[in-house]
């Protein structure tokens, strides 16, 4: 198995059209951050007729860049990999501007109900009110512009996440499920680590080798990279179990042991992901987790 190596040298060429496949063009939005890397990648599929995948944030410069890339061609649909706002906030604008229907796996939803006393840490990131004109289902074959795409449900990062295979090719748009610059944030109850593992297995088994993620550059050997990501997550599971067996009794204490030198912004993301690992491990009996008003208390199985 290949070692996991992140590519942080990606040059986004923000605002410009980059042809990444004969029928796919990438335009990166200017919303770089600790969570979005160089910005959200919007994609146009097709040549004479188009579909707009992940229109991105509400940003005038990005609007202008997409207008230039569309260049007056007909856009048949606006399609979302998921409804985190860095991907979906501009969808209402483009639905009206292009008179094109919106397709997704439905409004944003949680992977499970909130527990008593629980708060969804990234509630503001999801668009719970954005209702599509068509709900895409696993295995759907749809014409996205003049290109056929195959819809694959890939929950984990969030419950309504989709990936889009370009039919008849080795290329798939993986959204935030698999990215080359970093491992994916899984924050419960918005996302689910169990779903994330299942979706990794699903993606590995599909006939695509070239991954086009929604942040960062393309991944050429996608299944091997996804296997390395899975091994990385399994290693984190082992670290969490070891930390709890070694005396850690809160998620904060586990994070401090696994990420002792991370800066505050990164540590926030780490805490959310470790909480997802804790939930996954507790469901499988590897550790015990008791949820209280004052936080989650951990103990060995």
Describe this structure as you would to a colleague.
- It contains seven helices and 14 strands.
- It has helices at 60-70, 85-88, 91-98, 193-205, 222-245, 251-258, 264-283, and strands at 18-21, 24-28, 41-46, 49-53, 74-79, 102-104, 134-135, 141-144, 147-153, 162-166, 171-175, 210-213, 287-292, 295-300.
Number of helices: 7
- What overall form do the CA principal axes indicate? globular
What's the alpha carbon Rg, rounded to whole Å?
19 Å
**Strand arrangement in the largest pleated sheet:** 1-2-3-4-5-6-7
Structural class: alpha/beta
Q: Care to count the β-strands?
A: 14
Helix percent band = 25-40%
Order of helices and strands: EEEEHEHHEEEEEEHEHHHEE
As residue ranges, the low-confidence spans are none
Q: Span between N and C termini?
A: 31 Å
Q: How large is the share of residues in beta strands? A: 15-25%
Largest sheet: 7 strands, mixed
Mean pLDDT over all positions: 95
Could you list some keywords that capture this structure?
301 residues, alpha/beta, 7 helices, 23% strand, globular
Layout of strands and helices, then pairs:
Elements: E1 18-21, E2 24-28, E3 41-46, E4 49-53, H1 60-70, E5 74-79, H2 85-88, H3 91-98, E6 102-104, E7 134-135, E8 141-144, E9 147-153, E10 162-166, E11 171-175, H4 193-205, E12 210-213, H5 222-245, H6 251-258, H7 264-283, E13 287-292, E14 295-300
Helix pairs in contact: 4-5, 5-6, 5-7, 6-7
What's this entry about, in short?
This protein has 301 residues and is of the alpha/beta class. It has seven helices and 14 strands.
